[in-house]
Write a structure and sequence with these properties.
alpha+beta, TIM Barrel, 8-stranded parallel β-barrel, 7-stranded antiparallel sheet, 22 helices, single chain, 746 residues
Length: 746
């Protein structure tokens, strides 16, 4: 055994490589983070991870789906029980179909844990590797050795065990004409990559190709800068996005002679997406296409293998089961669960098939990429067609008129990420848009993108609704349109112009004090009534609001963001503000009117009167319902900050179901960045207000229901916050009473 594997020599060597890794990474921090243009996307750039089912019909299914995807490159995990089991059967079928297979050789979890000390375990590993190479050398394209060495709880490997496994594998491979791949570090942790590559070079086990599971799921959006490398403050200076990460990892491999970089596993799990989006399946489609376009344009990745083909949690095809293996499939995608009859392709499957069809072999002519705004990639397809792939960051929109000349736009055809034709897509959104042109762009690129202020207004892009911006000489804002009737609704939107709103017949005045709130008959004829809010700015607020967006915009942005996060609030229809000094001028906000609605204030009043039931629900059911909504809102990283019982609107359906929704949301704070977290003190800001009208016994019951939804208890000191708020409200009421009783002068 190589002396470097002995602790006496190995630990000092590991320390030297770690120090060297730090130096390498620091030198590479200046790597460019913007995608390249004028490059060819390789035909074999797209791959997918596969695993066998228990029966041969699963093999048939996998091969048929690979053909649908247009993918001939697969990666497959192979362990000690694989040569005599379903894995060997699937591998045989794949090789018969002339599929390009990368075989990941790995020991079982228990064997990996003992391989650093157990000589017998080392011998079993040697025999396994030798058998695999003898049987499949010359047939299998690539062999990956081990997996996720930086995730010992998944793979079982210690650092020394991983090096021993690689040393043995490379000794065996010396007798076979094969290419070995590694070290398969999981996520972006470049110190592991550089350290392992350096140590493998010392062992004479330098991989021919460098592999990494280049996830960006933890930052959610593929374009986002990673905040978890050196902290939030370093996020902007470092600009560690997908493109820069890929280039940095590639150069670490080049330092030891492994010139090509493979991403061997990447995906977004539905579970994680559900925390941030009301439409997780659509978000997975969005991120898949955006990731692959950026990965190809990095010019650093040779191939990307998408995560499991078939899996209920994170697969392109849902296997119809609810379980998940103990060992994470990133580390060992051992088998497919479920029956073939229950398999169902997800929208992401269709999106990958369309992306492969359009991008494989295409030449990227130009890449306009704003990491905080709009991305537009201009391609010439392998058949000579010219097209654009365009998208924005989440919650943004960019008008197509500002993207393309009118002549090009008039003859363009549009497809969504799955290849479905689209009619009248007025804006580019977070959902990738394929734009087929009738020929090459005369200028060689699109109109210059000036998107500095694009993030100031949050837009909603859902299966049912699409918002678009609005601007004229006097007003700036946005309109909400039906997704299937964009053009018709845009033509009607002028009827909601702020200059016309004061003249519309009022059906009901809801409030007329500091701000005015009333209902009007919908002049568009799309619904019965529209709720209009005129946000007046008076007194000291003409100064303080200089530093804030207008209240109309705040209402709109918060409403769109809440709906994006699956937190109910009346649908925003429009907002308007003055283009100049918007915060200190009156602004407008229009939203959907909710008929037959009542508030939690009415519920509390009935309960405080001693009524046992109100609208078919008893006290416990009401507390369960209201606390559940508040907890759900908090878990979605939203704090209302003015959640009085009057601001929690309730609508009862014909079947008795009650739907809560938040209103008067202009003060709400929404944490949209990944890594942000609502704290207990933030939660209490809402809880003390929503439970203020309750007595202490009912407050404790409400908090108990909230804790059950939260899954953990709040601090026992929650009562202190209530006492403080009670005292403050008592003092405020007393001061108001004194002012009312003060006799007039003279």
């Amino acid at each position: 055994m190589n002396k470097l594997l002995h602790p006496l020599y190995g630990y000092p060597a590991a320390a030297r490589e770690f120090i060297s890794a730090i130096g390498q990474c620091l030198r590479l921090l200046s790597t460019d983070h913007l995608p390249d243009a004028n490059l060819q996307v390789p035909e074999n750039f797209f791959g997918v991870n596969v695993a066998p089912g228990d029966t041969p019909d699963c093999d048939d299914y996998i091969l048929a789906r690979l053909e649908e995807l247009g993918i001939k490159q697969v990666r497959m995990d192979f362990s000690y029980d694989s040569p005599e089991g379903p894995a060997a059967r699937l591998l045989h079928r794949l090789l018969e179909a002339e599929t390009d297979v990368m075989l990941d050789l790995l020991p079982p979890l228990d064997e990996a844990r003992s391989i650093d000390e157990d000589v017998d375990a080392q011998q079993r590993w040697r025999k396994f590797v030798e058998d695999c190479l003898r049987n499949y050398a010359g047939k299998v394209a690539l062999f990956e050795i081990g997996n996720t060495p930086n995730r010992g709880k998944w793979s079982g490997f210690s650092s020394r065990g991983f090096l021993i496994a690689n040393h043995i594998a490379y000794q065996v491979a010396a007798d076979y004409p094969v290419q070995l791949v590694g070290p398969n570090v999981s996520d972006f942790e470049p110190l592991y990559n550089a350290s392992y590559l350096g140590l493998l070079r010392r062992l004479g086990a330098t991989p021919a190709l460098h592999s990494d599971n280049l996830f960006v799921e933890r930052v959610l959006e593929p374009e986002a800068y990673d905040h978890r490398v050196l902290g939030t403050l370093a996020r902007e200076p470092l600009k560690l996005n997908l493109v820069k990460k890929a280039r940095l990892l590639q150069r670490l491999g080049q330092n030891v002679g492994a010139n090509e970089l493979l991403c061997t596993y990447t995906c977004w799990t539905i579970k994680r997406l559900q925390r941030r989006s009301a439409w997780p399946e659509q978000k997975r489609v969005d991120y898949l296409v955006r990731y692959l376009a950026l990965a190809a344009a990095s010019s650093a990745l040779t191939r990307v293998y998408w995560g499991p083909l078939i899996c209920s949690r994170d697969g392109l095809i849902n296997d119809g089961t609810s379980d998940y293996p103990i060992v994470d499939q990133v580390s060992f995608y051992q088998r497919v669960r479920g029956e073939v009859a229950s398999f169902k392709p997800t929208p992401a499957f269709a999106a990958l098939a369309h992306t492969v069809k359009r991008l494989a072999g295409a030449r990227c002519i130009n890449a306009d990429h704003d990491p905080k705004g709009v991305s537009v990639f201009y391609y010439q397809g392998k058949h000579g067609d010219h097209f654009l792939l365009a998208w924005t960051r989440d919650g943004q929109a960019w008008p197509l008129e500002a993207l393309l000349p009118a002549e090009s736009l008039a003859h363009a055809q549009f497809q969504d990420a799955s290849g479905k034709p689209l009619e009248n897509p007025l804006v580019v959104t977070e959902q990738p848009l394929f734009i087929d042109l009738d020929g090459p762009l005369r200028s060689g690129s699109c109109n210059k993108l000036q998107t500095q202020d694009i993030s100031e207004v949050i837009h909603l892009s859902s299966p049912d609704w699409q918002s678009v911006g609005f601007a004229d000489e006097n007003w700036y804002g946005a309109h909400m349109l039906r997704a299937t009737e964009r053009a018709a609704d845009r033509a009607l939107a002028s009827r909601l112009h702020p200059d016309l709103l004061p003249g519309l017949p009022e059906t009901r005045v809801l409030r007329d004090a500091r701000n005015r709130l009333w209902n009007v008959a919908d002049p568009r004829g799309l619904c019965d009534q529209v709720t209009v809010k005129l946000n007046r700015v008076k007194g000291i607020k003409r100064f303080t609001y200089r530093f804030y967006p207008s209240k109309g915009r705040r209402h709109w942005n918060n409403a769109c963001e809440m709906l994006r996060k699956n937190v109910a609030t009346p649908l925003p229809l429009a907002f308007f503000e003055a283009p100049e000094r918007p915060g200190v001028r009156d602004s407008w906000y229009l939203c959907q009117f909710i008929p037959d609605a009542f508030s939690a204030r009415e519920v509390y009043a009935a309960l405080n009167r001693g009524e046992q039931m109100y609208r078919g629900l008893d006290k416990a059911a009401w507390f369960e319902l209201l606390s559940g909504f508040v907890c759900h809102m908090h878990n979605k990283q939203i704090i209302h900050r003015d959640l009085s019982s009057g601001n929690l609107l309730l609508q009862q359906q014909d079947d008795g179901t009650v739907i809560p929704m938040a209103i008067d949301i202009g003060r709400a704070r929404i944490w949209s960045g990944v890594g942000s977290k609502v704290r207990t003190r933030h939660r209490l800001l809402d809880l003390i207000r929503i439970a203020y009208k309750l007595n202490w016994q009912d407050r404790a019951r409400f908090i108990s229901h909230y804790e059950a939804h939260l899954g953990k208890p709040l601090s026992p000191l929650w009562r202190v916050s209530f006492w403080y708020y009670d005292s403050k409200q008592t003092l405020k009421k007393a001061m108001k009473g004194k002012r009312r009783r003060k006799p007039p002068r003279g």
